[in-house]
Amino acid sequence: MINEELRTYIELNIVPKYQLLDKAHSGNHVQDVIDKSLEIAKDYDVDLNMVYTIAAFHDLGLIVERERHHIIGGEMLFNDLYINSIFSMDELIIMKEAVEDHRASLKNPPRSIYGKIVAEADRSDTMDTIIERTILFRSKNFESFESIYPHVYAHIVEKYGEGGYLQVYLETKYSKKMLSDIRELLKNPEAFKEYVRNIYERLSK
C-alpha cells in the first residue's frame, strides 16, 4: 500500500506540474507510468512507496529542459523537502539514480531494479499511444499531416524499429506487445502511413 500522506502530497504538488509540459507529456502520461510501475513492481521485492515516487518525478525535469530532463528530475526528487522527510539518504540516492536512468536513449542499463521498473513502465505504452504522443510532440499547432509525417516515421523507426535504440530491461507483456505491433506494421510502409494518418485525423478534430 502507498503511504496516504505521500500520495496526497504527490497528487497535489507533483502530478499537476505535468500540465505545464507539452501535449505528449501532459495529460495522462505520468499517471499511466505510475500505474504501470506499481503493477510491474508486484513481481519484485521492492518498496512501493519508492516506486510510486520515482514514477511521479520521472519526467518532471522537462519543465526546465528536454536534453537533461532525466538529470534535472533526479535532482528535483533528491532536493524535495517533503520527500527528504520520509525517505532515508540511501533511499533518496536510489530514487534519484532511478529517475536519471529512465531515459530510453541512455546506453547503460539502470543501476537498480527501481530504475528498470520505471524505465519499463515509461516504455510500455500501446502502439497507438506511442504514435499519438509522437504526433503531439512533433506538431505544436497541427501542421499538415504530410509536413510532420516524415519526422514521425523517422522517430518511430529510429526508436522502436528493428535495431532501434530503445532498450528494454524487464521485457514485460506490455513492451513485448508494443514492439511486436510496431515492428509488424512497419513492414508495410503504406499501411503504417495510413495508420498514422487515421490517428492524426482523430487528434486534429
What are the key terms here?
Cyclin A, domain 1; mainly alpha; 2 domains; globular; 205 residues; 11 helices
Provide the number of structural domains.
2
Distance, first to last CA: 40 Å
Tally the helices.
11
* Low-confidence spans: none
**CATH class category label of the largest domain:** Mainly Alpha
* Helix fraction by DSSP (H/I, runs of at least 4): 55-70%
Along the chain, the helix and strand elements come as HHHHHHHHHHH
CATH architecture of the largest domain: Orthogonal Bundle
The CATH topology assignment of the largest domain is Cyclin A, domain 1
Strand content: under 5%
Structural class, judged by helices and strands?
mainly alpha
The major pleated sheet works out as:
none
Rg, Cα atoms, Å: 17 Å
**Which word captures the global form?**
globular
Mean pLDDT: 92
Number of strands: 0
Walkthrough of the structure:
The model has no long low-confidence stretch (mean pLDDT 92). With 205 residues, the chain is mainly α. The chain contains eleven helices and no strands. Helix content is 63%, strand content 0%. It has two domains: 4-107, Cyclin A, domain 1 (Orthogonal Bundle); 127-203.
Write the layout of secondary structure elements.
Blueprint: H1 4-13, H2 29-41, H3 48-57, H4 69-79, H5 81-86, H6 89-101, H7 113-122, H8 127-138, H9 145-160, H10 173-186, H11 189-203
Helix pairs in contact: 2-3, 2-7, 3-6, 3-7, 4-6, 6-7, 8-9, 8-11
Short description:
The chain has 205 residues and is mostly helical. The chain is built from eleven helices and no strands.
